[in-house]
Amino acid sequence: MFVKKFVEKAFKPGGNLNGLRPDDIDPRPVFHYGIPAGSTLLAYDSIQKILAISTKDGRIKLLGQDNTQALLESNEAVPSKFLQFLENQCILLNVTVQNHIEVWDIYRKQLSYVHIFEEEITSFTVIQQSLYVYIGDSLGNVSVWMLDQEQCHFVQMKYHIPFSASHGKTTEVADNAAVLHILPQPMAESKRVLLIFRDGLIILWGIQESKVIFITGGSMLQSLSHETKKVTAACWACPFGSKVVLGYSNGEIFLWSIPPISDPRSDIQADKDLFAAQNVPICKLNLGYKMDQIPIISLKWAYADGKACRLYVNGASSSVSSNLLQVIMMNEHTESRTIKFVFPLPDSCIDMETISSTSDQSKQKGDFLLILLKSGQLYVYDDSTIGKYLLQCQSKSPLSVPKEVVVKLPFSDSSITIAKFITNDSTLSTSTAKDYNLLAKSSTPLLPNDMKGKDTSNSCLTHFSGFAKIKNLYITGHSNGAINFWDVSCPLFLPISSITQQNEDDYSLSGVPVTALYFDSNSRVLVSGDHSGMVRIFQFKPEPFASENNFLGSAKKGCSHIIQKVKLLKVNGSVLSININHGSKHLALGSDKGYVSLVDMEGPTILYQKQVMSELCTDVISLQFGTCSFHGFDKNVLLVVTKDSSVLAIETDTGNTLSNTMVHPKKPSRALFMQILDGQAISGKGSDTSDGLDSSKGSCVQDTNPKQSFLLLCSEKAVYVYSLELAVQGVKKVHYKKKFHGSSCSWASTFCTPHNDVGLILLFTSGKIEIRSLPELSLIKETSIRGFTFSNSKSASWSDSSICSSFDGELILVNGDREVFFVSVLSGNEIYRLLDPISQVYQKDLVCLQEGPVCGPIIHKEKKKGIFSSVIKDLKGNKVKNGQNAEVEDSKENIEALFAIFSIANFPTVVANRDSLAVEDDVELNIDDIDLEDPGESSKAQSMIPGLNKQKLTRKFQAIKGKLRQMKVRNEKTSAKEEHEDEKVGTVDQIKKKYGFPYGETSAAKMAENKNKIQDNLRKLQGINNRATEMQDTAQSFSILANEVLRTAEQDRRSS
């Protein structure tokens, strides 16, 4: 009866203050399940096994282990250009098209810092196992940035690579000067980095030397091919960094040779041979892109023990060809023939990523290739299966074509046509949080753990003993005729039962879409209607049901253990609306042909069937039982609403219309929702939630002091509150009205607060949600669900999207077959279990097993021939030369060394020059103050200092060397100047002598003495410079030795 009380309050002065309060309302998304629409980029943390997917509208979806999922939203709804993890560091870096660098804390799921980059970012590369990032811009410069973990800020280091020092051609056109790819050289990430410019120039840069080590590609290649082409994609094609593959805008693909890391003593020889190498690629791959001038947009190399090494090549979307993604084997047979596989994709690929199994329960560990299509679909291939297929092509054995798996919601292969959501706060569930946690981990993962191709849509059925014990029950009707029941007590879809039964003897799927559902748990009745007009009344057995784990059963058994009997009847047209009068046990049915049928459920027997003739559209979209005053008498009426927003009242007992005219707006629009606001008891619990505030205990209860009742009607263009009494008589009396401007309304429903206040939920096609009071239609709160768009298809009777709500304002929005939004309206209403654990994708307690150096793959010592044998040969040569203890960098040591290198400016900038000039004016270094005595005793003392800080000492040495280098340059300039002055002094003395004036012989002698002193000081400075270098090397060696001793001691302590 709280609706009557609410209506009474609404007409009292200040009644709104006691009604729906803003403090009670907080519309918000609480969970997102699936793959977001508009996905564009992929990133993967191989240690934490977290997949990140960015979208066009600034969202980032995180998929972790054990079905954990989280959704991040940027401040600006713009696409991403680059997306990369700092692996196992709880940090995700996102670069937007606005050149904003976002630092995301994925443990707290919040945006920690945003840095606005001044130039256009054209390349973005994280140095793995570190906190450093290379950023290349459109001007050809490369800067180094570091993440300050304590402040979670992005800090620019002093080290940088200017365009003039790397590329060298300062006259290069700005469009061609951009650094498109920055690739740290494998096995030498802290020593060398490969810079690839848009014009095709390839530069191998020595980080410690701060200079170019190797140059290839570029304008020479352009002149040879007599056509302008630009680099569009690049990747390494060797685990030791000796080969790199480049894709170009004209469809060409070249393989280039790069000198691998070698002994530091050979660096001098490498400098001499810098320009000696021939500027010619070692191989050209002909895959058909060149013929159609299809640009290569991405390349990905996969190492597979040397035999099935493969290169994934992706071409830009083109009307000429649809099969643009293919993989080619790169081994010794590539010289004779091309072994490749073209992926049969329905749409063009926009990104790809290789991931490992996302569940610890998967016994067989393997890699999977994720392919993101332009349509937003995500395809998964078994990477090892692709390798086997290529090997089979090589040996000409029977082929086993790789099969794909499409990532989608666990709703079987048929789409949802209708859905209901029932929440029950009074449910005393016997399942604990631990039980749900185990179910969540064992439920069907969104990303597959294996590629066996089995149907996993209902493979994990929970223990089900009755609907009354389910806190959140979600019922879905499908296009193939199936009806599925899901437990969404935690925001995952846990299947509990499925109905495919057609009658008492037929348990097969009908194949006819389900178009209407009504469920009442109190009377244990489910009524379904389908597209052919067939209505089925399922009567469930008393609960608890028989203890069984699999409710799908066999074709003979079906769901007989939960269904007591099935009743069938047929109506004219597709069933669109269903409602039940709980007092009379009558069932009302509405069809798309305008027929309204009243059925006695005991038979079932059709009491009467009446066709409603509307002016524009006869589809009956809603039916409501009610009681109102008609010419001084109470009448039981059945309110009928057609698709064109026309309202007609029918006398329930006789089926006669109470008026010859229908109530409708001046401008007809598509009707969405209808509800009677009167004095009926409205609990909503266990009732048909699609019909809003429908009662489960009776259709109406008379109030001793009845007040005016209303009829709520929502359409795409406006919402109306009519007088119910006058609407029954065919008279339109609008008490409240709200027109929609901008986007159209796509869905509407009512909800009830714990204080028995009633509100209206409006969802618009743009994703905006409005909460309005009733009956005044005042706006209480509004929000927007980013990424959700709803379109009412006019050509089909159902849409790709499905929306339903519970009596307490909990919404489930299904967007196609890939994503679901869980939305709550009431403040503090937390109905989902395990929301925090399921949303936590980052595992703080995860220990990385690979704490030591990153070793290269094991290369089998096989004899290789052909062009690509050079790749294998290089791998063998490095492995044999260096042996088991190959020159593999210790990551921790080298990262510490990088801090010392990156903290010092290697090239002066305009600001740095100004600062240095100011410093030189204020501070002078007196050469006489430098102690140049024998450093023997001092060195011994230095070696005995405990806890020597290598980084600080290195920075001091580098500062001294920089200052000495500046003094040396200044002294050289002074020496040249003094020589010129000597010439001037000699000329002056000769003139003085000629005219009899005294001339200064002592002045010339003094200048000569100063010259000798300066030369002596230069020698001393050179000696200090050499000794500083030796001390730096000694300190670094000492630090490495100390860390090794500490590591050994720690291992001994753990073993003891």
Summary keywords:
15 helices; elongated; 1056 residues; disordered N terminus; four-stranded antiparallel β-sheet; GTPase activator activity; alpha+beta
Write the layout of secondary structure elements.
Layout: H1 2-11, E1 25-34, E2 39-45, E3 50-55, E4 59-63, E5 69-73, E6 80-86, E7 91-96, E8 100-105, E9 110-116, E10 121-126, E11 132-137, E12 142-148, E13 153-161, H2 163-166, H3 174-177, E14 179-184, E15 192-197, E16 201-206, E17 211-217, H4 219-225, E18 231-236, E19 243-248, E20 253-257, H5 267-272, E21 283-285, E22 296-302, E23 310-315, E24 325-329, E25 340-342, E26 349-356, E27 367-373, E28 378-382, H6 383-395, E29 405-406, E30 416-423, H7 433-442, E31 472-478, E32 483-487, E33 494-499, E34 514-520, E35 525-530, E36 534-540, E37 563-570, E38 575-581, E39 586-591, E40 595-600, E41 605-611, E42 620-630, E43 633-642, E44 647-651, E45 671-677, E46 710-715, E47 718-723, H8 724-728, E48 734-739, E49 745-752, E50 758-764, E51 768-773, E52 779-784, E53 801-805, E54 810-815, E55 819-826, H9 835-839, H10 869-882, H11 891-902, H12 910-922, H13 936-943, H14 950-994, H15 1001-1055
Helix pairs in contact: 11-14, 14-15
